[in-house]
Amino acid sequence: MRIVDLIEKKREKEELTREEIKFLLNEYLVGNVPDYQMSAFLMATYFNDMTAGELLEFTMTMRDSGDTVKFDDIDKFLVDKHSTGGVGDKVTIVLAPILSALGMGTTKLSGKGLGHTGGTIDKFESIKGFKFSKTRDDVVKIANKTGIGLMGYSDKIVPLDKKIYALRDVTATVPSIPLIASSIMSKKLAIQSDVIILDVKVGDGAFMKDIEHAKELARRMIEIGTGAGRKVKVVLSNMDEPLGYLIGNANEIIESIEMLKGNAPKDLKEVVYTIAELALKAKGEITELSEGIEKIDAVINSGLALSKLREFIAESGGNGDLVDDYSILPAAKNKVEVFSNKEGYVSKIKAEEVGKAAMIIGAGRATKEDEVDHAVGLKILKKVGDKIKKGEKIAEIYYNDAKNVEDSKNMILDAYVLQDEKVLEPKAILEIIE
Ligand code: URA
Q: Would you say the CB of residue 102 lies under 6 angstroms from ligand 1?
């Protein structure tokens, strides 16, 4: 088999066989295919797509490039929830304790933030002493006690994705739906779970800028999951504004805890409840999603979900008391307020711009090597649909280093898109695909 023939086949929109896909990827993994040939194949894929058969084989070969993790010794219905990445996206931190309180377990890989999007690892690591599980045995130990099994990505899981993603990044082939679908699903298929629930973010701050592309990504990921014999559900959720009000690491832990105390921002609540309802339905506990609301309300109102988060933090090396005492979390030394320079109804808050405004004061990373300042972040005070008067306070910036604060302020001002006509409050969940 010659690699150049496989590239030519893809260029001519012919279907590659399973053996050909396997050969290409496995040879690339061991260094026998140079980056320039893989780049050409990725670009041909960007333009010519993959058939269902090609996509499944591509994903399975990626998955099999490293370790796969089984959780047979966790005696619970296991949910793997994954978000395609957003701003203010603290869903996992709230959802996992709720699922645990509902008698389910969460098993998932979590990542660090990059660019304008945050990562669950950084958020939990704002808790002093908190150690993210690196091995399967650690995950099992903590999950058996708390129902929450979060594991940091390791180089041993789907190493091929890391290699191919780095190449996509420098060859303008990241925004290819089959390549995104296979990248995400190879990591989902590497971990055992009973249902995979994907939260595909749609809008300014997301990979998928519009609903049609988001639906196509959802369709391709369901196609892969079904082909691999897994149960996959998808929600498409709005990222034309950040989720909730707080952005940053320690900041987002606080907003998550507040939701578990019953003080939820409306949009965050809608996303968390919908995913928890999908999990309950997948487990067979309810037949209609709306039947889940009462059950979820009950575990929040009783404090059970919050106690699961407390346990998880303590089992992971942190001080669980922080759920009642936020002074245990790191706090920024300074605060600056942002006042609107225009007036009208908020029609959109460019999430990517807000994410970057948080990143440049240290809440996120511009490159993988950057250090994160867990204490800093933003609070937005106005959401889509709200009316703003000129001179009214719209945000607060919590910072330690003043270097980029002025730029951050300008980015927040620029992120707010206002209009004269009234704006309806947006829906957080745009579509559910079961
Ligand atoms: N997330 C991933 O894991 N891979 C992609 O290609 C895009 C988003």
A: no
pTM: 0.95
259 lines ligand 1 (CB under 6 A): no
- Residue 348, C-beta contacts closer than 8 angstroms, at least 6 positions apart: 204, 240, 241, 384, 417
Helix %, strand %, coil % for the chain, to 5? Answer: 45, 20, 35
In this structure, CATH architecture of domain 331-419: Alpha-Beta Complex (3.90)
d(CA 356, CA 315): 33
Ligand 1 nearest atom to the CA of residue 174, by list position: 6
In whole angstroms, what is the distance from residue 197 CA to residue 83 CA?
Answer: 9
Predicted confidence (pLDDT) per residue in 70-126, tens digit: 999 998 999 999 999 899 999 999 999 999 999 999 999 888 888 888 899 999 999
Q: Where are the beta strands (DSSP E) in 95-189?
A: 104-110, 148-152
Report the alpha-carbon distance of residue 389 to residue 391 in Å, rounded: 6
179 CA: nearest ligand 1 atom: 6
- Spell out the domain ranges in the chain: 3-48, 77-323, 331-419
213 is catalytic: no
Instruction: Please tell me the CATH superfamily of domain 3-48, with its number.
Output: Transferase, Pyrimidine Nucleoside Phosphorylase; Chain C (1.20.970.10)
pLDDT digits (tens, 9 = 90+) for 384-408: 999 999 999 999 999 999 999 999 9
For ligand 1, atom 3: residue with the closest CA: 184
Mutate which of 112, 120, 165 for ligand 1 pocket (most atoms within 8 A of beta carbon): 165
187 in active site = yes
Give catalytic status of residue 168 as yes or no: yes
Residue 180 near ligand 1, beta carbon < 6 Å: yes
CATH code that applies to domain 77-323: 3.40.1030.10
